[in-house]
Each structure stands twice: as structure tokens, then as C-alpha cells.
Amino acid sequence: QSVLTQPPSASGTPGQRVTISCSGSSSNIGSNYVYWYQQLPGTAPKVFMYRNNQRPSGVPDRFSGSKSGTSASLAISGLRSEDEADYYCATWDDSLSAVVFGGGTKLTVL
Amino acid sequence: QLQLQESGPGLVKPSETLSLTCTVSGGSISTSSYYWDWIRQPPGKGLEWIGSIYYSGSTHYNPSLKSRVTISVDTSKNQFSLKLNSVTAADTAVYYCAREKHLERSWFDPWGQGTLVTVSS
User: CA of B113, closest CA in chain A: separation in Å?
Assistant: First the structure.
């Protein structure tokens, strides 16, 4: 059972907008930055969003991040087949003094 | 460009100790700007943070694994290591090493390619 809660799956057709949520608590998301990782099959995860809503170079501006209270979300607009991957949220938990990950969301492009 | 590479046995017997090393190239491990971390992923499952070490040797561990984990650093070899004792089949996973920003916990970049460790007799 993950400390951060994500839906196990999400899907959309090419061109659609999809949102992946990440729910936590005051000791983690509520008081720290949220990071998002994309993991393509058979590869190591790669940071896709940092400090809640900042995109690393190379990440398309179709991707956006947001945070409100104890929840965060990753939005993907203009969905493309290459966006199909697993997405994980992560943050620091002040109570646990540990990094915590969400359980991951498998994004399928129909 | 900084690169990380995991190495160690791919098969460990139950109740024994899993030992992995991460070699850092293209940059020094002796920097105050980063932690050095281990993260694992059981087959078909999500990511689990194992722990981190600072170049000074100070560590943070996942509370659920703390009693079995030791992370150490060898600055002379630019390496850091993981030891997980009393392993069971539940410890079968791909183990990744990664660099984490010191003042921005949970920002991991880059990652190693990962190494699969299977616990089986």
C-alpha cells in the first residue's frame, strides 16, 4: 500500500487530454514539492516534472503539473502514442523522513 | 555527463545478504549538492525507495526496510553500495541507483539502468 495514491490506469485517444492524480497528506504533498517520473517499458524511470510544475528540457509542453493542498496532478494534452508509459509521483514525507512514491499509473493510448 | 552503473550478483539465496555496488562516472560522488540513492521495483510492480547516503556518510532509510539495510560510500572509488540482509522472495526486484538533489528530496536524476536480483534457492 503506497503512501501516495494514484489511479492504477488511465487512457485516452490520440489528441485527447488526460489527467493523472496523486493524493497524499499534509506531511508529504502538503509540505513538499512533487516530482513525476515517466517509465517506458524495460527502461529506468526518468524525471518528467519537478517542483510541482517545472518541465525538464526535452519534455514537451503538452505535459503540465499542478499541486493544490495535499493533491497533485499531471496533465497531458494532445495525447500521442509515444506518451504510453507508466507514470509515478514522488515526494518527501516529513513524518516518515523518507521518500515516498505513488503506486504508479499505466497510461494507455487507445 | 554523469552516469551510474549497478553491479552485483543476479541471484541470491533466501536468508543470505544481497550486495550491490553503484559506480559513478563523469562526476565526483564527493559533492555536497547530492544524495546517492537506491530504489527498487519488483517485477510488474511500482517503485520503492530503499535509502540514501550523503558523501559524508550520513544515511536515511525506508522505515519498512531499515532493520535490514546498510548503505555505504567509498569516495576513493567513486562508488556507493547497498547491503540487504535476510532476503526473501519478496526482495526479488530490479534495483536502481540514482542521484538525488540534496535540497530537493525525491528529485532523482540520473538513474542507473537497473539490475535484476532474484532471490531463490
Answer: 6
By Cβ distance, the residue of B48, B63, B114 closest to A96 is B63
The residues on A that touch B, with CB distances below 8 Å, are 2, 32-33, 35, 37, 43-47, 50-51, 56, 88, 90-92, 96-104
Task: List pLDDT tens digits, range B20-71.
Answer: 999 999 999 999 999 999 999 999 999 999 999 998 899 999 999 999 999 9
- Strands of chain B (E only): list them: 3-7, 11-12, 18-25, 34-41, 48-54, 59-61, 69-74, 79-84, 93-101, 108-111, 115-119
Q: Is B70 exposed, middle or buried (0-12, 13-18, 19+ CB in 10 A)?
A: middle
